[in-house]
């Protein structure tokens, strides 16, 4: 267990945070770390299909859509709030095991607004399970307020994540 059990990767829009979290999850799992939580996978679209997102339940390996098809020409937010509810249930289920580490794809607009996986982040921390998430730079102040200044901010680099996990 890391010395500081709560960590957030501070990232910019240029960082490929979903790929970094997937890489970190793969690397940690290969080292025998039991993972819980969810990470996001971006699925590139084509000229005929839009970009979509999936969440992977790290405890079971199952994936489910995070976006909904709003039809051609729509510019509304395609986030599927029902999928967020499914993600929340997956995270809560994984806490029962419990895992060595919970990964949450990000602390973003939904969490800042009091929804998304905000409660599940708190449940993992309250249970004493180390947690790693990602926080966009625009939400850094909100994260600081939410955590009361606890935890550590990491650079968006695999070696920083692994060094955090290995700290004792």
Automatic annotation (TrEMBL):
InterPro entries: DUF2478. It comes from the Bacteria. This is DUF2478 domain-containing protein. It comes from Thauera linaloolentis (strain DSM 12138 / JCM 21573 / CCUG 41526 / CIP 105981 / IAM 15112 / NBRC 102519 / 47Lol).
């Amino acid at each position: 267990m890391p010395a500081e059990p709560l960590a957030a990767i501070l990232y910019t829009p240029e960082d490929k945070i979903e790929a970094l979290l997937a890489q970190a999850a793969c690397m940690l799992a290969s080292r025998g770390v039991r993972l819980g939580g969810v990470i996001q996978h971006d699925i590139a679209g084509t000229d005929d299909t839009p970009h979509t997102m999936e969440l992977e339940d790290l405890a079971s390996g199952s994936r489910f859509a995070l976006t909904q098809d709003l039809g051609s020409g729509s510019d509304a937010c395609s986030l599927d709030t029902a999928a967020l509810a499914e993600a929340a249930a997956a995270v809560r289920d994984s806490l029962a095991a419990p895992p060595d580490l919970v990964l949450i794809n990000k602390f973003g607009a939904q969490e800042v607004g009091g929804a998304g996986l905000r409660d599940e982040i708190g449940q993992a921390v309250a249970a004493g399970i180390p947690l790693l998430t990602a926080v966009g730079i625009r939400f850094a102040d909100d994260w600081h307020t939410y955590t009361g200044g606890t935890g550590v901010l990491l650079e968006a680099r695999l070696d920083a994540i692994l060094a955090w996990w290995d700290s004792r």
